[in-house]
Design a protein that fits this description.
Number of strands: 0
Helix content: over 70%
Shape: flat
Structural class: mainly alpha
Largest sheet: none
Distance between the termini: 71 Å
Number of helices: 17
Oligomer: single chain
């Protein structure tokens, strides 16, 4: 099978002219304007188009047109380069590597299909589907099973594969639709909750309806993402009812379930943990050992330059204030304002730390 795929690929490459792929960092291109533009943006020297235009083209009457061509060339090179990103780095965990590789291979298989490399495209779709099922990439699995279902429907004498992928496609389309429903519920509720600023009867009723609709479906859908949406909506439902004890129990249950699932992403875990910390703050339940352990756990879920890193420290800052651990709150504050990314924070996200400085003072 693999050799037939290899022949299919060789045939396509032989038949089609191979174009030199423009990617950033090609040997001999280090001194080009695109490379220089990239370096000056990366270093922070250029903050606007105007600065870059002035630097490269000065008073040239065609400066705007010339700069636009340069900028678009760099954009295209960066997009091309994205296909060759090295995922064998600490910031890529196994799931991150898998989703990057799956989407890249899915795109490659689609291109091969358009080029009439049928065997190669089907082979690559099969390989990608295995990873999608393993890591619960539901949306991509639905697209791949649809592709394979259609391919096998046109194959003479391959009814078995057609029947198999027809069934699998229906299963993943149902999972996709149900996950989408859960996501819609979550978005609607969060939007309403944030805009209203405080829990009220309308939020409570909406959250209760959503939670009671989703909970019976959780075991059937059986994906980490669906469980996350269901649990977070349930927690909001109890918080809107001022039932912190029930919300705390549900957040503990959510962590038990989601931590045990290999496909739970770090963002989902972090959301539940931060919600739990806010509940503990509300209930004025402070356990020094648990707080320290939870802080270390949260740091494992974020990168120092991420927005979520700042959110983690904001939640812990508030927690330590309410616990009257003012020295620890001061340590958190100092850590945040010394972070290299602090100056890049915008609006309220940065202003709130100015207010915290006042509280500490």
């Amino acid at each position: 099978m693999e050799f037939e795929v290899l022949k299919d690929l060789v045939r396509i490459i032989t038949r089609n002219k191979i174009k030199n792929i423009e990617v950033l960092g090609n040997p001999g291109s280090e001194d080009t304007k695109t490379e220089e533009l990239y370096n000056k943006i990366a270093s922070g020297e250029f903050q606007t188009d105007e600065q870059a235009t002035e630097y490269f083209y000065g008073t040239d009457e065609n400066r705007d047109k010339s700069y636009k061509k340069l900028r678009n060339r760099l954009i295209r090179q960066l997009i091309n380069t994205a296909f060759f990103v090295d995922v064998h780095q600490p910031l890529f965990n196994e799931r991150s590597k898998a989703i990057y590789n799956c989407y890249r291979d899915f795109a490659s298989a689609q291109i091969l299909s358009l080029r009439d490399a049928r065997q190669a495209s089907v082979y690559l779709m099969h390989q990608t589907l295995e990873q999608c099922i393993k890591y619960e990439f539901i949306e991509l699995a639905a697209e791949i099973t649809r592709f394979l279902r259609l391919r096998y429907s046109r194959s003479v004498g391959d009814k078995q594969n057609h029947a198999y992928f027809s069934k699998l496609h229906k299963e993943y389309e149902l999972k996709r639709a149900t996950e989408m429903m859960a996501m819609d519920y979550y978005d609607n509720l969060i939007d309403y909750y944030i805009n209203k600023k405080s829990p009220n009867s309308a939020v409570l009723e909406l959250a209760r309806t959503y939670y009671e609709t989703l909970l019976p479906l959780a075991d059937q859908v059986n994906t980490a993402q669906f469980y996350f949406y269901t649990y977070i909506i349930g927690i909001i439902r109890y918080m809107a009812d001022n039932d912190g004890a029930a919300a705390l129990l549900l957040s503990n249950e959510a962590l038990t379930v989601l931590q045990a699932r290999r496909n739970t992403n770090r963002g989902s875990l972090l959301s539940i943990v931060l919600q739990k910390l806010e509940i503990l703050t509300l209930l004025r339940q402070f356990d020094e050992v648990e707080m320290a352990a939870t802080y270390q756990y949260c740091l494992q879920l974020v990168e120092p330059s991420d927005f979520n890193w700042f959110k983690v420290h904001e939640v812990f800052f508030q927690l330590y204030l309410y616990a009257k651990e003012y020295d620890k709150a001061l340590e958190i504050y100092a850590l945040v304002i010394k972070n290299d990314r602090f100056i890049t924070l915008q609006g309220n996200i940065r202003d709130v730390w100015r207010l915290y400085a006042g509280y500490l003072h």
